UniProtKB/TrEMBL annotation:
PANTHER family the UniProt entry points to: GLYCOSYLTRANSFERASE HI_0523-RELATED, TETRAACYLDISACCHARIDE 4'-KINASE-RELATED
Glycosyltransferase in keyword set: yes
Coiled-coil residue windows: none
Keyword flag Ligase: no
Alphabetized Gene3D superfamilies for the sequence: Glycogen Phosphorylase B
Lineage: Bacteria, Pseudomonadati, Pseudomonadota, Gammaproteobacteria, Oceanospirillales
Domain of life: Bacteria
Listed name of the protein: Glycosyl transferase
Amino acid sequence: MTHHSTVVDASESPHSLRILVVRNDKLGDFMLAWPALACLKATVPASHVSVLVPAYTAALARQCPWIDEVILDPGDAAGRSAQRILLGQLKKGRFTAMLTLFSTPRIGWLGWRAGIPLRLAPATKWAQLFYNHRITQRRSRSAKPEYLYNLELAEALLATLGRAPSRRPTPPYWPLPVGTIEHQREQMSHELGIATTRPWIFLHAGSGGSAVNLTPEQYARLACMIDERLDDQPQARPIWVLTAGPEEEPTAHGLQARLAANGLEAVVLPPRQGLDDFALGLAAADLLVAGSTGPLHIAGCLNRPTAGFYPSRRSATPLRWRTCNDDARRLAFSPPEGADEADMSAIDLEAAATAIRELLSHQGLVGSAS
């Protein structure tokens, strides 16, 4: 197989720099690509950045301030004609470079066939044959956060293009226009009939079909423990806003009944108009509690405080799937050493409740613990 040689003029006008970024898997993975996208735009603001994403995350991609164009990936299972249409779109895009954050043979082949001169990806799997620039990362060792691996690939691409990356962008990687959070809270307060004066803790008990998560029973116990720790501050007792993905509403309603039976104020957030609407709603959270799922990573991108529950297996550690919010706004819990890596019942909920209560205090949402 012959490769197209890399002919990229580093003196090219920034306006003619056309970069295609591929992250065509799950929602959480896509959110962890936003720091890399922010880096590309910060270094070359005039560049044209396109993303190749599945229909599922497209609405959210259109909200991203670092993306100029969204191209839909029909996926591996789509037939020949759909792949041909996609190839035509990539050729028409006249891209200078392709940055593949998660590499598969089909995407590598499409980039090669489209004649994109610079194609960069992690040096893993045989898909790397289609790329003329490969970066060894050994992600399976989970030595760094996923978003940092992505950021390093973006910086490697810029270096190959002869651009010195700017200072690394800092959170929020999804900055919202001034007043957006207040507007979301006002709308939600009206819709759900809840006071804006008390902290809102969003709790997402669903697992999105992939991540190991706490059971609804564990979440109910955790919520009660957090509430108990604020007994002396009635105005600081949280309102629990329970969120759910498609088909997860029964779980949320069951959890709401359980919390209400224990005297906690809890509401279920009704289905939103789309994933983008749901994501913007998370901006209203004072804290989001969830497993390592898409909503946790959306909240991280918005730089909202997060408390994530993770298994301890190497491929899914709290370090590898760390949210990309500020360090001071992030908590992570997983089974202790010696417990089974996916035994979420081994997590010390009392210790988690105390840490969450302290986080609320540090954020100025509740008074200090006496």
